[in-house]
C-alpha cells in the first residue's frame, strides 16, 4: 500500500484569497490594467508570428500600432457622415418616437385591462405601478450612461498600457515562473497552459462573433430600410461580448424601431426574423469553431457566472464573467489534481486499467 504524503499547506490558498480580496477592493483602479492585459493577450499571437519570421518584437508592435491608427482614421472618415446623419435623424425624430411609444402603451394598457380577469380598479393600479416603475428606470438611463464614461476614457489608456504588456511578451511570463518555488513550477506551467487554451480561444472567438453579428445586423437592417441601422449594429456588436445578448438587444431595439418607423407589426416581425437567422448562422458556422477550441462550460455555469459578474462588477463583470469562469475552472482542476497527488488520494481510485462503472 503506498505511503500517504501529508496534505499541502493552505497558506497558498489563503494568500490567493487575500490577493483576490485586495484586487476587488481596488477594482476601479485596476480596470484599465485588466482591459490592457486582455487586449495584449488577444493581440500577442500576431507579434509571436512575426517574431518567428525573424523580426524584432519592438518594431513589429510599433508598426502594428501605426497601422491600426491609419485604419481607424480611415474608418472614421468613412463612417463620420453616417454617424452625423443618423444622429441628426434621431434627434429630429425623438419626439415622434416618444409620442408613438406613449400611444402604443396607452392602447395596449386599455386592451389588457379589458381582457384581464381582474376588477378594473385593480388592473389599473397594477398597470400604473408598472408604468411608473418603467419611467423610473428610463430616468435612470442618463446616469447609467454617465457611468460608462470612465470606460470610454480608457479608450486611450488601455492601448498605452497594452503597448508595454506587448513589449514584455514572454519575458514577463518567464520572470514570473522563475520567481515561483521550484516545487510549484510544474503546477504553474500546467495551470497557465490550461488557462491559455481556454481563455485565448474564447476571447478571440468572441471578437469574431461580435464583428460578424454587428456586420450582419447593419447589412440586414440597411436592406430593410430601418432607421439608425449603423447605431443598432454597433449596439448589437458590443452587446455580443455578453453571450446571447447581442441578438436579444437587436430584436428588442431593432424590432421596436421598425415597429415605430413603419407603424406595422409585420415590419417588426421581419426584423425579429432577421435576428433569428443571424442567431442560427452563428450557431451553425461560428460556435462550432469556438467550442472546439475552448473549455466546455455547462450553460448553468455560464448563467451563474454572468449573474455574479454583473452583480459584482457591472458591465465589465458581464464582459469577463465567462472568461473568468474558464480560468476558475482550470484553477480548480489543477489545484485538485495537485492536492490529490500530494495527499495520496490518487491511489484510492482506479487506474486506467480498471474503471468503476456508474449506474
Describe the fold and architecture.
About 85% of the residues lie in helices and about 0% in strands. The radius of gyration is 26 Å and the shape is globular. The chain starts with 10 loop residues before the first helix and ends in a 16-residue tail after the last helix. Residues about 1-10 and about 350-359 have low confidence and may be disordered. The protein has about 350 residues and is mainly alpha-helical. The chain has helices at about 10-25, 25-50, 55-115, 120-145, 150-170, 170-180, 180-225, 230-240, 245-260, 265-290, 300-315, 315-345. It is built from twelve helices and no strands. It has a domain at about 185-345.
Mean pLDDT: 76
- Strand content range: under 5%
Specify Rg, calculated over alpha carbons. 26 Å
String of helices and strands: HHHHHHHHHHHH
Q: What is the number of E strands?
A: 0
> What is the approximate shape?
globular
Give the arrangement of secondary structure elements.
Elements (H helix, E strand, L loop, with lengths): L10 H15 L1 H26 L4 H59 L4 H28 L1 H20 L1 H9 L3 H43 L4 H11 L5 H18 L2 H28 L6 H15 L1 H29 L16
How is this structure best summarized?
The chain is mainly alpha-helical. It has helices at 11-25, 27-52, 57-115, 120-147, 149-168, 170-178, 182-224, 229-239, 245-262, 265-292, 299-313, 315-343. The protein is built from twelve helices and no strands.
